[in-house]
Amino acid sequence: MPCKIREFMNPSKAFRTLLFYRVGATLSYQITMVAVGWHIYEITNSVISLGLIGLAELIPYFALALYPGHAVDHYSRKWIAAIACMIHVAVALFLTAIALGYFSPPIPLIYTAVAFIGVGRALLRPSYQALFGQIIPRDQLTRYTAYASSAFQICVVTGPGLGGIMIGFAGLE
Fold first, then answer.
1. Between the N and C ends of the chain, which has fewer C-beta atoms within 10 Å?
2. Mean pLDDT, to the nearest integer, of 46-61?
3. What is d(CA 166, CA 173) in angstroms, rounded to the nearest whole number?
4. pLDDT above 50 (res 9)
5. Which residue, among 134, 117, 94, 96, has the nearest Cα to 26 in the 3D structure?
6. What is the reported pTM?
7. Run of H or E residues at 119
């Protein structure tokens, strides 16, 4: 086994935990956004509605962009990351309830839920970056950055595909 592969198979526990956190958060986000886009388009048959989904997420993300960076410098980075994950889980449960018809009208509620995803993502990125810089020794930063970046890119590519497969298996074609 080549040396580089062997090194990746034995990374520090903290890095594995952080990488698992990032992969889970990225995959869940990608899958959720595919499902949300599919559901909005199914309801409205409007491409503009899909663009508004992106805008609904982008506005709170950019509005809060500076505050989470300040927060991770002054408060627990783990708690901020946990809050971001809790927001994502709460939004996923809320979107599930909307899809099952428990709340109506669905369209404004879906846009509101997506706005909260933007809040969660605004918290997620700086907390991840701060934790990453905290656990990785400086001399190993480039190697672990490459691993983390590769894992992130794999999630960005496979997440929407997994979301589409799940929609297909659910019979929502």
1. N
2. 92
3. 10
4. no
5. 117
6. 0.83
7. helix 106-135
pLDDT digits (tens, 9 = 90+) for 12-27: 788 888 889 889 999 9
Secondary structure in 3-state letters for 17-61: HHHHHHHHHHHHHHHHHHHHHHHHHHHHCCHHHHHHHHHHHHHHH
Q: What number is the average pLDDT over the span 72-84?
A: 89
In this structure, what token pair is assigned to residue 1? 């086994």
Tell me if the bond preceding 2 is cis, omega within 30° of 0. Answer: no
Q: Which residue has the tokens 């669905």?
A: 106
Angle between helix 141-169 and 13-44 (nearest 10): 30
- Return the higher-pLDDT residue of 13 and 115: 115
Q: What pLDDT score does 36 carry?
A: 94
> What is the C-alpha separation between 114 and 109, in angstroms, rounded?
9
Core vs surface per residue 6-44: b (16+ CB within 10 A) or e: eeeeebeeebeebbebbbebbbbbbbbbbbbbbbbeeee
With DSSP H G I counted as helix, E B as strand and the rest as coil, what are the percentages for the chain, rounded to 5? 85, 0, 15
CA atoms of 67 and 63, how far apart (whole Å): 9
